[in-house]
Design a protein that fits this description.
The complex is a heterodimer.
Chain A: E1 5-7, E2 10-13, E3 19-24, E4 31-38, E5 42-50, E6 53-56, E7 65-71, E8 74-79, E9 88-96, E10 99-104, E11 108-112
Parallel strand pairs in A: 2-11
Antiparallel strand pairs in A: 1-3, 3-8, 4-5, 4-9, 5-6, 7-8, 9-10, 9-11
Chain B: E1 9-13, E2 18-23, E3 32-38, E4 45-50, E5 53-56, E6 61-64, E7 70-75, E8 84-91, E9 103-108
Parallel strand pairs in B: 1-9
Antiparallel strand pairs in B: 2-7, 3-4, 3-8, 5-6, 6-7, 8-9
The chains are: A mainly beta, B mainly beta.
């Protein structure tokens, strides 16, 4: 298995632009997580999906952030409009309900100028 | 979620054993203790999980005393490639992992 796949790996954009991050979880996993990591705040859980349904989005910072999971093999995290304070590494992770171990993707490093 | 406390950083040399202790005084009866490892520019990776006593796998050992208010991750004979951030997490097979700041382990030649 290729593991969790994220794209793009790096994204540089200007303030006000829309940013879309993509994630393909490990096949067969039914839970998907989006995290954000910064030096100041560490690793924060943004949103959690189970069987493609958002279960907990309490970590989503504000309305500018939205996430979707249209099917079991794909999820997106969108920021619109982006701001410099959104600059961070965004990780996607997936897990199987039978095993609580979360498998993380390589992350997307987002820089908003 | 049970709060965890672990050292900010630790230094070691190649070939030595590294022990990282994590305090979790308010651990709940059903909580498990899980450790993740994160290398620079990578996502965290599961290392080991335990409930009580001792757990060992090919990477590390996890020691948990009877009161479960702390746990110690033991990395035997570390190498330079073990330089990473190590996170201690406590929870009930729960999706809401709280990673905290972790312990930065630096292994020197």
């Amino acid at each position: 298995d290729a593991g969790v796949i994220q794209s793009p790996r790096h994204e540089v954009t200007e303030m006000g632009q829309e940013v879309t991050l993509r994630c393909k979880p490990i096949s067969g996993h039914n839970s998907l997580f989006w995290y954000r990591q910064t030096m100041m705040r560490g690793l924060e859980l943004l949103i959690y999906f189970n069987n493609n349904v958002p279960i907990d989005d309490s970590g989503m910072p504000e309305d500018r952030f939205s996430a979707k999971m249209p099917n079991a093999s794909f999820s997106t995290l969108k920021i619109q409009p982006s701001e410099p304070r959104d600059s961070a590494v965004y990780f996607c992770a997936s897990s199987s309900r039978d095993d609580n171990e979360q498998f993380f993707g390589p992350g997307t490093r987002l820089t908003v100028l | 979620l049970a709060k965890t406390t672990q050292p900010i950083s630790m230094d070691s040399y190649e070939g030595q054993e590294v022990n990282i202790t994590c305090s979790h005084n308010n651990i709940a009866t059903n909580d498990y203790i899980t450790w993740y490892q994160q290398f620079p520019s990578q996502g965290p990776r599961f290392i080991i999980q335990g409930y009580k006593t001792k757990v060992t796998n090919e990477v590390a050992s996890l020691f948990i005393p009877a009161d479960r208010k702390s746990s110690t991750l033991s990395l035997p004979r570390v190498s330079l490639s073990d330089t990473a951030v190590y996170y201690c997490l406590v929870g009930l097979n729960d999706y809401k992992l709280s990673f905290g700041a972790g312990t930065t382990v630096t292994v020197r030649a």
